[in-house]
Amino acid sequence: LIERDGYLGGATVSQQVSHILSTNGVDFQGIWHDWMRALRRRGGLISRGLVRQSDKFRGGVDAEVVKYAWDDLLSEAKVEQLLHTAASTAILEDGRCRGVVAETRAGRRALLAARTIDCTADGVVCASAGVPWEQGDGVNPWSQSLTKVFRMGNVRWPQEGYPQELVQSLRQLAAEAVARGEYDSPVVANGRAVQYSANDGVHESMPEYRTEMNVFSSRVLRVDPLDPFDFTRAEREGREQAWQCADFIRGHVPGYEQSYLLDTNAHIGLRDSRRVQGLATATNEDVLEFRRYDDGIARSSWEIDMWPADSYDAQAVDRSSDQAKARRRRLAEGAWFDIRYGCLVPIGVDGLLMAGRFISAQRMAQGSLRIQQTCQSTGQAAGTAAALSLRHNVSPRELDPAIVAGQLHEDRTATEPAVDILKDLPEYGGRG
Q1: pLDDT (tens digit, 9 = 90+) per residue, 253-295?
Q2: 288 contacts 323 by C-beta, under 8 angstroms
Q3: Phi, psi (5° rounding) for residue 32?
Q4: Model confidence over 39-52: pLDDT tens digits?
Q5: Strand blocks (E) in 341-388
Q6: In what order do the strands lie in the sheet containing 19-22?
Q7: Chain center to CA of 305
Q8: Model pTM?
Q9: Which residues, in sequence order, are CB contacts of 99 under 8 Å at separation 6+?
């Protein structure tokens, strides 16, 4: 297992996306439960576990403990890890991926494999192998807006919470501070610094024993995530946004009087880049109509969660339309759409699979399936498919999708739910 950082955990750790979110819980499948149990053994799951708030399930994990939980799971499975190593190029022979060229601390190395799974989030291996891909909205290459998450330490939340009148007055203070020239960041000016600090719900994604606050105020716009210079600009701009937000919060928001800027995320939060073309594609219609397929290998039931690339305030999806309201009702009733096996199999190259947010999907579909538990499900599916293709001595593209779907159903059904609240969900059936 090649990992570019010195730890496992992906976005949960490196981007500080430490909350658990689901609209109906049916997207918590298989290996997610193993991960939850490993976290609980280490004390890294918020003691409340998973709670239902309005139209969502919500919870949180200790991002530092996540590193240890994944180490535990991989040690149990006897997985050989190579940390601080980045896959850069696919090794191709007669149209087949034979492994990757990797950049290690000892220099460039060729790592050969019978099957290769690209989980780089940006589809680096697939792109280097010549698999077609797209990005952006068809006009601009921009990703959805990026977020430089930061943590405030030594926060003491007021017992009375944050009444709406207080929040409004804090927003006015922010606007006045910008007008006086104290700040020039648009995410201070538009009240996002207040929205994600004077908030009675956001701190519940942190364990009770931590006096910290994850703040998601940042929005960095018009970024081409595949342009290294532009991505560098995004990191620096996001860090400046975090600094100004933290300064305003510490000076004005109750509970933060003795706080300090603890850190910013190691990698700016990136929601999308490449969407790599596979044998099948998760379509926008799949998302809107909650389509099910016999070759489904993962469920996606998160909302269509898209952030505009060019606005500090607007929503990319109109959630007030009748269609959006009808979709939310169906989600509340336990609906989901299936991600098909072919979405994990890139076209034109044998011996290669993919998993994570860059799998074959249209833009709206990607806005739903990019959430962490669904990425974990596609990872489990890709690993299962790799093993089955070797067992049956066929390439992943030749493998019968029904065999993969059947094996996953068997494995996930044998996995006990890690969180009691999920056992009563009718569509869930108490099993992953």
Answers
A1: 999 999 999 999 999 999 999 999 999 999 999 999 999 999 9
A2: yes
A3: -60, -40
A4: 999 999 876 678 88
A5: 352-354
A6: 19-22, 56-60, 51-53
A7: 11
A8: 0.94
A9: 90, 91, 110, 111, 112, 113, 116
